[in-house]
Amino acid sequence: MTPTAKQRVPVLRVLLLVSLGFALGCSKSGKVTGTVKYDGKVVPLGTVTFIPEKGKAVSVQIKDGQYSADKVPPGPAKVKVDTSGIRQELDGLKRAGGDLPGIPGGKLPGGKEDPRKELNVDKERLAELEKMVDVPASYNDENKSGLSLTVESGSQDFNIDLAKRAK
């Protein structure tokens, strides 16, 4: 071998070892899917968040009681469930449209129409939001939720069945 070829062999060995180290030390992310229930009832809307010990948190939407989280870092993770944003959206839509409380047909004194009826309220979204199930705020705190999971590479199911507790 020429001196140049002899110098390349150690460099190639180092590159091979480094590549092998990355392959062994960096595992693939996980995909976590499941259902969410509170007190036995399906939680139709909300968010599920995975907070791994290493890596970035992953938040996904709950739709019809189901969720699917891609690219969740492998390893131990705390989990939280939140429906407060859905509650705020529902309350906001209710304030923006619909009948005035206690006033049949949304008529104001003197027979005037409720001015909120002129606002463009998404009736389908409102109907969807009205099916919501409120989950106590303690489940939206990863340190109080009591939910955890060891995320594995590949796909896995993690059904979340939340017990009734004080809000």
Round the mean pLDDT to the nearest integer and report it: 81
CATH topology annotation of the largest domain: Immunoglobulin-like
N-to-C order of helices and strands: HEEEEEEHHEEE
Query: Tell me about the biggest sheet?
Result: 5 strands, mixed
Shape: elongated
Instruction: Give the oligomeric state.
Output: single chain
Gyration radius from CA atoms, angstroms: 26 Å
How many E-type strands?
9
CATH architecture descriptor text of the largest domain: Sandwich
User: Helix segment count?
Assistant: 3
Helix content class: 25-40%
The CATH fourth-level homologous superfamily of the largest domain: Carboxypeptidase-like, regulatory domain
Give start-end ranges of low-pLDDT stretches: 15-25, 99-103
What structural class results from the helix and strand content? alpha+beta
Count of structural domains: 2
End-to-end CA span: 76 Å
Strand-residue proportion = 25-35%
CATH class of the largest domain: Mainly Beta
